[in-house]
Design a protein that fits this description.
Strand order of the largest sheet: 3-2-1-4-5-6
Helix content: 25-40%
CATH class of the largest domain: Alpha Beta
CATH architecture of the largest domain: 3-Layer(aba) Sandwich
Radius of gyration: 22 Å
Distance between the termini: 40 Å
Mean pLDDT: 95
CATH topology of the largest domain: Rossmann fold
Strand content: 15-25%
Length: 456
């Protein structure tokens, strides 16, 4: 309730937050549309390997050529314009920069950028949830030690869920579950970039003309993105991952308080304090009215009989016995809301969600029978999909995390639905992401095992 006033003060003082965006894809482009209109922020630079595409994104979102005519970061700083470059690390090192937004979506690249930003003393807003789930707890620790903010990206579902969890806990309410909605059917796990558009009711030509990436949209469909986002929430909110992975129970908004609670109270959860994704369609293929396909939710328990009566007095939807209720948000606006994270980090020195534990992980699972010598093609591809797993279980199995299941070769055949382990593949020993992941496992593995034993 104070951000707009604080930003206005910075504008009045001609002291705007200086922001750099790395990655001008869909999320980044949506941010471009709003930062131009946000008083108290200056988009100092945009970095993308395809500078022409980044320029087109700026023009599409209302920027004039005069605003993006800077030949260098120094000139952009001096005259309030925006510098375009293909060099993310050059952007990070630009003089006067306050906040870096990492929106590439590539774990290897994102980790390198975050480490550089931490070394340079820049706050980081991490749109790259794939990298966050792979090594986020360690990146957050390094950022804390350097005195900079490492934050999840507001507008993306994990940060919005973390906000709802924080609201409940700050109000003295115990969280039963938190998560999001999606459209799910079990057969989606086998979807590939060749079949994805059929599920969306599009032709491949129409999708290509709209600039839609088949692998990206397939990761939304095959369950990988849901697993990644729920791992981020489990880590940011200290919640548990379901023991067998996400169950995707069909559920309307009116049923959240009855269904997303423990089985002992009549719900579907094995225990309190879990993440879960609800489906907007039944297993019989029937779409559910009042679904939460695009939104987020939290369910919470009344701590006393008095609070339980308050739930009833003020018309909250509750479980049958009245002990549990729910709060939900039907939509998320993705990059249009990203400036909230920038303001929290740059003005308040606080994240809009950040990993505080290593509770959840996402592991690679075979989409079909795989042959020896096949190369895994990562998120949204033809070979693997990502399953949510408790971090202790993933570490105990030495499973290949989804963020590293790209460009590595199988040593022997594996059946469909097999969890892929490091003993099954040739490890990418020279990868920065692999090295940082192993460092994180060494740093946080004992705590993950201890937390799991405590939960048991």
């Amino acid at each position: 309730m104070n951000l707009s006033h604080l930003l206005q003060e910075r504008a009045d003082q001609d002291r705007p937050l200086r922001v750099g965006l790395i990655g001008a894809g869909k999320f980044g482009t949506m941010f471009l549309s709003q930062v131009r209109l946000t008083k108290g922020m200056h988009l100092l630079a945009v970095a993308d390997l395809n500078v022409d595409k980044a320029l087109a994104s700026l023009i599409e979102t209302g920027w004039s050529e005069e605003q993006i005519s800077a030949a260098s970061s120094a000139k952009a700083l001096a005259n309030g314009s925006t510098w375009l470059t293909d060099d993310g690390e050059a952007l990070i090192n630009a003089g006067g920069l306050d906040v870096v937004i990492e929106a590439t979506g590539v774990p290897e690249v994102g980790i390198r950028h975050v480490l550089a930003a931490i070394e340079r003393g820049r706050h980081i807003v991490m749109v790259n949830v794939e990298a966050d789930v792979l090594v986020g707890p360690l990146l957050k620790k390094k950022a804390d030690e350097a005195g900079v903010v490492y934050s999840l990206a507001y507008g993306d579902q994990p940060s919005l869920i973390a906000e709802q969890v924080d609201w409940a806990r700050a109000a003295g309410l115990e969280v039963a579950a938190a998560g999001k909605g999606t459209l799910y059917m079990p057969e989606f796990h086998s979807s590939t970039p060749d079949t994805v558009w059929d599920h969306y009711g599009l032709t491949s030509d129409r999708a290509e003309a709209s600039g839609m990436n088949a692998k990206m949209f397939n990761s939304f469909l095959d369950g990988t993105k849901s697993a990644i986002e729920m791992a981020a929430v489990a880590n940011a909110c200290d919640l548990k991952a379901p023991q067998g992975g996400l169950a995707f129970p069909p559920c309307s908004t009116s049923q959240l308080a009855s269904n997303l609670i423990p089985k002992s109270a009549g719900g579907v959860l094995d225990e309190k304090g879990m993440v879960e994704v609800v489906s907007s369609r039944t297993r019989e293929g029937i779409d559910i009215p009042s679904d939460l396909r695009w939104g987020v939710y939290v369910t919470f328990e009344a701590p006393t009989e008095y609070v339980k009566r308050c739930f009833s007095d003020y018309g909250l939807l509750t479980s049958k016995n009245g002990d549990y209720s729910a709060l939900w948000r039907p939509y998320h606006l993705i990059g249009l809301e990203l400036g909230i994270s920038v303001a929290w980090a740059g003005l308040l020195g606080l994240p809009t969600g950040a990993p505080r534990a290593w509770n959840g992980d996402v592991v690679a699972v075979a989409k079909r029978d795989l042959e020896a010598g096949e190369e895994l093609d990562g998120e949204g591809g033809f070979t693997v999909w990502g399953r949510l797993m408790r971090a202790a279980d993933s570490l105990g199995a030495d499973a290949v995390p989804m963020g590293l299941a790209h460009g590595i070769t199988l040593k022997h055949p594996l059946p469909k639905d097999a969890v892929i382990c490091w003993s099954d593949v040739s490890a990418p020993a020279e990868s920065i992401a692999y090295k940082v992941r192993r460092e994180m496992e060494a740093e946080f593995g004992s705590a993950a095992f201890t937390a799991e034993r405590g939960a048991a």
